[in-house]
Amino acid sequence: MGTLRIDAVNNDLSKEYTAPPGRDPSIDVLKGVAILAVVYAHTAPFCRNFLHLFALTVFLVCSGYCFKNKIACWADWRRYMKGKLRTLYLPCAVCNGIYVLLGGVFLRLGLYTDDPAFLRMTEGWPVPQKLYTLQGIGDILKKFLRVILMTDTTQMGTATWFLIMLFAISAFHGAVCVLTAKRDRRTKQAVLAGLFLLMAVLAQFAKLPYGAWMYPRCFFYSYLAYLVGIGIRELDWKFLESPLCALAAVAVLLLLSRRYFVDLANAEIDGVLPYLAGVLSGWCMMKSLADLIIRRELPTRVFSYLGRHTIPIICLHVLCFKPVTWLFLQVRRLPAIYLASFHVDFDAPEPWKFLYFAAGAALSLVLDACWRCLRKRLNREKSLV
């Protein structure tokens, strides 16, 4: 299995990267860089505010930028959503189901804790901690339903909410495409402009109870970034990819990171205008960086490989943080109670953040490669029967 796993990764990296017809070859490279930024941002590093301005939103811009409107009727919409169900919602549901089960198992084994002392010990951490006290099948099933309905999270999965948000955006925007299919181009653009303004107003002024987990507002903000991607493509704003724009974008992001904070998962965002400035600046910076990377063959293969495997990294990286937390506890001789920390042990010094980062990306890819090798072997055995 170890040999198959390594061969699977090496074979993918050795293939010369070719983008699908009609697609910008830098998009997968951009996504590869962005997913590393997402993983590192979850360790709460020194540049956390800077990374949160664009690390996730650039994926939404990419999704809008790459969307091809071939949805002309409800039958097209159903086929489109069937694909999204398989590629977005199903990985989220499966991973969160496993994580809920593991959380209950870890509690029973004493690896996790329901001791309230944990909350006092972690007071003041940048990510507020909470106890997970699943005790039986009923609790596990209720927890799983809450996670799937986006009213709760699991202890070992965090960015999986993002996949559900992309799924919701795909469903909504696909329906918009069906309703405007018979309209001319100018009318369609007017509808998109109207939707953009509506989402901006709702994101800025909608007041929703915290019990709703702020996901409606999260959808408004996420769809705004998606529409930005569509607008960049429709208006053909190639000037945004110039080195001069990239330098200006870095300066804007640095200034914004000193005054504003973006937490897209909880829709804790200091205003629509700073958010949109961060979205657009993040795209300019990341797209220009990707255009530079694709001038070199080896970095292109590496980052495009990462870009094509963002889903497993999103689903698995928080789980892959756990071995690093365990190692940190052994080195510092800290209580095992800290293994319940989410996402990482935030008392760990900055060098440990890079170890978390490396584990979150590399171990996720190893687990994904193992799964793909196992699936190929099972399919091969089936074909021989």
User: What is the residue-mean pLDDT, rounded to a whole number?
Assistant: 87
Number of domains: 1
Give the end-to-end Cα distance, rounded to a whole number of Å.
Answer: 21 Å
Q: Give the helix proportion (percent range).
A: 55-70%
Largest sheet: 2 strands, antiparallel
Structure description:
- The model is unreliable at 1-6 (pLDDT under 50).
- This protein has helices spanning 2-14, 26-41, 48-52, 57-66, 74-109, 117-121, 137-148, 160-179, 185-205, 215-235, 243-259, 272-293, 297-308, 310-332, 350-384, and strands spanning 262-263, 268-269.
- It has one domain.
- It has a two-stranded antiparallel ribbon with strand order 1-2.
- With 385 residues, it is mainly α.
- β1 (262-263) and β2 form a beta hairpin.
Outline of this structure?
By secondary structure, this protein is mostly helical.
